[in-house]
Specification:
Belongs to the binding-protein-dependent transport system permease family. LivHM subfamily. It is found in: Cell membrane. InterPro entries: ABC_transp_permease (IPR001851), BCAA_transport_permease (IPR052157). The protein has eleven helices and two strands, in the order ααααββααααααα. It is mostly helical. The chain has a domain at 23-219. A two-stranded antiparallel sheet has the order 1-2. Strand 1 (132-135) and strand 2 form a beta hairpin. It is globular and about 60 Å long. The termini are far apart.
């Protein structure tokens, strides 16, 4: 039986990890909330962003956190362009076409990464990768504390953007009523592309926060996006607050499962949670009924 200090420390460290899961899920839930489709390229683009962080670090010695203002606008532009010039025209207004196109994009990205970087596992070593903060009897990884801070700041900024800016109001209008938004002069295609861009920008920030403590290979995005799907379902499809709360809950569940069942079985708790939520509350904690 573990002491209470160990259990509490596992919970707190799970919250730190869960905050980054929440940030990954933010882009996924935002795209669903506006376009009402699942973006299957989300995980592959996260892997591409992580390799971009790795490459800039190895080529120029740039710290992952200092890459945030560089990669965030770049991935926003990439997301905007992919939706506006590939997904939008290729879907012909059909949701099933969007799903197939995003799946195809994911396959292309992953295979390009395999061709360039092979299947080797890579990581970044920074001065703070193994540093810790001590708070009484508890020990926390500095990099994961920075990840929590970055995730919270990003979520707050995104909330203010959606709540206060004209573009944010247009995004919320399109998510509620696409036809009505177009009738009052909102460019729906532009809003769709901006939403995709924001989703990919969140992945850029996630990649920069992840690399000091996580490894990367071309298929790493699949593991993270499975957790992100669980976060989105738990929090409620389309809910930003739900994504943040769901991410923290899933991080804690994974940490406690790893503590009591063993590290290799840590994700069992995540998928049990996923099944229970689907059975008990299909709309999630903050999701609205259809």
């Amino acid at each position: 039986m573990y002491s209470m200090n160990i259990v509490v420390e596992a919970i707190l460290n799970g919250m730190l990890t869960g905050s980054v899961y929440a940030l990954i899920a933010l882009g996924l839930t935002l795209v669903y909330g506006v376009l009402h489709i699942i973006n299957f390229s989300h995980g592959a683009m996260l892997a591409a962003a992580m390799f971009a962080v790795l490459t800039l670090n190895q080529a120029f010695g740039l710290d992952p956190y200092l890459q945030i203002p560089i990669l965030t606008p770049l991935l926003f532009v990439a997301g905007y362009a992919i939706q506006r010039f590939i997904i939008g025209p290729g879907s012909h207004g059909k949701d099933e076409n969007i799903l197939m196109i995003t799946l195809g994009i994911a396959i292309v990205i992953e295979n390009v990464l395999l061709a360039i970087f092979r299947s080797d596992i890579r990581s970044i070593s920074t001065d703070y990768s193994f540093n810790v903060f001590e708070l009484g009897p508890f020990i926390f990884s500095q990099a994961r504390v920075f990840g929590l801070a970055g995730s919270v700041v990003t979520a707050v900024l995104l909330w203010f953007f959606l709540a206060r800016s004209d573009t944010g109001k247009a995004i919320r209008a399109v998510s509620k009523e696409k036809l009505g938004a177009s009738l009052v002069g909102i460019n729906v295609k532009h809003v769709y592309a901006v939403t995709f861009g924001i989703g990919f920008a969140c992945l850029a920030i996630s990649a920069c926060l992840l690399l000091p403590t996580f490894y990367v290979n071309p298929s790493i995005g699949g593991a993270f996006v499975l957790v992100a799907f669980t976060v989105v379902v738990l929090g409620g499809m389309g809910s930003i607050v739900g994504a943040m709360v769901g991410g923290v809950i899933i991080g804690v569940v994974e940490s406690l499962s790893g503590l009591f069942l063993g590290e290799s079985l840590g994700q069992i708790g995540i998928f049990l949670t996923f099944i229970i939520v689907l059975l008990v509350r299909p709309t999630g904690l903050f999701g609205a009924k259809a």
